[in-house]
Amino acid sequence: MADTEKIIEIEVLRYRPEQDKEPVWQTYKVPFTDDMSVLQGVQYIKDYLDETVSFRWSCRMAICGSCGMMIDDKPKLSCKTFLRDYYPGKLRVEALKHLPIERDLIVDATDFMKKLESIKPYIIPKEERTLAQGEYLQTPQQRDMYEQFSSCINCMLCYAACPQYGLNPKFTGPGILALMHRYNADSRDGGQAERNELGYADEGYWGCTAVGYCSEVCPKGVDPANAINQNKMNSAINYFTRFITPGGADK
Amino acid sequence: MEVYKADVAIIGAGGGGLRAAIAVAEADPTLKIALISKVYPMRSHTVAAEGGAAAVTRPDDTLDHHFNDTVGGGDWLCEQDVVEYFVAHAHEEMVQMEHWGCPWSRKEDGHANVRAFGGMKIERTWFAADKTGFHMLHTLFQTSIKYPSIKRFDEHFCVDLVVEDGRVQGAVVIEIATGEFRLIQAKSVIIATGGAGRVFRENTNGGIVTGDGMALAYRHGVPLRDMEFVQYHPTCMPRTGLLFTEACRGEGGLLLNKDGYRYLQDYGLGPPEDKPRNKFMELGPRDRLSQAFWHEQQKGRTIEGKFGSVVNLDLRHLGEAYLRERLPQIYELAEEFMGIDPAHECIPVLPGVHYTMGGILADGKTASGLPGLYSVGECSSVGIHGANRLGSNSLTELIVFGKVAGDEAAKFAKATSISNPGAIEKQADAIQARALGIVNKADGTERIAVLRTEMAKSMESGCGIYRMGTTMQDTCNKIDELRQRYKKLRVDDKSKVYNTDWLLAIELGYLLDVAQTMVYSAINRKESRGSHQRLDGFEQRDDANFLKHSLAYYNGDGAPRIEYGEVKITKSKPGTRAYGAAGVKADEDRKKQGAANG
Predict the structure, then answer these.
(1) pLDDT tens column, B455-468
(2) Which of A4, B64, B167, B394 is the most buried (most CB within 10 A)?
(3) What is the pTM of this model?
(4) How far apart, in Å, are the Cα atoms of B407 and each of A237, B41, B414?
């Protein structure tokens, strides 16, 4: 972690809807030390070079999910991507792909939020329990079945990575499908049948073409591709059992 | 201006705001709730809480133990009746979170597991690995989606409360995406905006933690209580201030100075033992551990080098597999941000600002003196933290008092109606004009980043781990000066779309007001208690003169007026605050005393 101050060039894709017909690149020279993140570089620009550059950020520690952006064309959290890894070259930052740019590095998250709200992302109890009865029992092994998928920070990097979402924004997309699986896989939950109506629709699991880039870019190791794959399997089994089980599957 | 008519408005959608919203929705589904947040709810800073949430759970634990740990940990500046309520309702709220799906870590038998935390006599910290705040926040947010009466205003920035006829009747917000103003009319308002750690430079807090709600209530005459008590967390990352949870020590982590020596034994926390022991050594309270660091630094026993002055957090003996299971985020932070593998190397750490014990004066039911206004969470001073908060009490506070705030605000809303809509809209117009004045100022010269940096540096020197009258006076003068210079602030960005420059300017105004209450409350407290430690002749606790809450009242351009309020003592008379072997002895003495008196 050397302290000598070096200068790096950061190219920012600017888009101010009130004045720019289309996005334009703007270059800033930023002094940095080896422990500085790309986010700190962009913050330096806003603090000392150009107050009008706009971006979202908060926690600085890869848990709030605010600061995702394309860094040299790869979706990353800027708080845990480091300037030193781009030196002595320069780096380009721009808004996450596949999502409409609202301004500069800020994308419109409305579609993502709507999808999140649509999948019943809460426990639909298999059996009701009062507070006086205490907690539902869940072994560490049962917890392991969904824990990974509960770690999604909603940063939307996987949406910027997903070619299918780029082609068809109706596709529910990796992060939300992983979240759907998180609840379906929870031993306390009995809402699979309700959620599967969405999951098994064309925009659900089957919209995925198994490229797997979502899992590669996920900063929290959630592995949406795995969640989707497990459900494609379930969906296929469900489809066939429908013919042989009176009243259909999902029991 | 567009008007939205709500029954209850909630400002802030972190753990406290979300829990309150759900409570209102469950209390009466016909009440319309406006849940306002300057970020999407899951970005709220609750997300960054790591270690866990306290609730009496084990058979060998009692409510009295949790009460005594909290009141003693707070150096007897707690409202004891409120602490009694808090400890009694903690467990049911944990279970409620469990029913809503929170992925609590489990024991083999399927029950929720608990871990050790600093200053706690018995293990009682519920945890979800080391991402407890993250999981609680997402659980609450996702659960809130079930309730159709909760109307969210995501990315809406609150610029002021509307107070009419002597009570709060709404708030004015900016829709960040468009720059449009909205009046949220409401019969009751809950402030749940979190702390103000960004007043300082090296801190564990997210960029959004700027004291907004504290400043809003304060400007409307509600006092801020005990603002001098600012918690330094002893184990933070050098330079960024990012947090390494206390759970590192709860799981058995050690603190070592440059000689590899467990220095805490020199500061009344020993003797050291091989295994972690509750309320001993590394499991002492945060204020004492941060103070011990300061002394080590004075003695030249910290490690000097590329990270500045640090000590070592040693987790190596816990082994990679255990660390990955119990402290996965800590592992990731050390690896990715510092290039350190904590299974094989020590993590360099130092204290950083973490938490504001004080806040908006609230009674035990979260109500302020301004009718209709409630507060919950770090922004609030409901009275459970005193002069030093115990780790894992703050997440519990969010849900215990979030529910109370929701219930109370619902009751108030049902019993009242909007009094004078015309006057309220007129006020809203005036608020809009003032907020636009900040961005439209023609002759501004001062820069946001410059003022913010000067404030943070000055607060660090005046309101650090140890404090002196002279440096506090310098900080008083500096903050007074910065509040004047703030009036000449220049905002370069004139856009209506995502004008974060404008919002930063408004936040800076909030920060400066809150900073001023901290330093003026501090300089007036001529004793040492909890996180407020002086070196200029006031080194001892002074119960005769200062077993009192500080109350900072807004005074326009001038310095805040500082008054004092009584502390509610029910069953714990102020005693010696001791840890380690000395703490065991003090407990025995209290018991003997009790037996002799009884």
Answers:
(1) 999 999 999 999 99
(2) B394
(3) 0.97
(4) 46, 21, 11
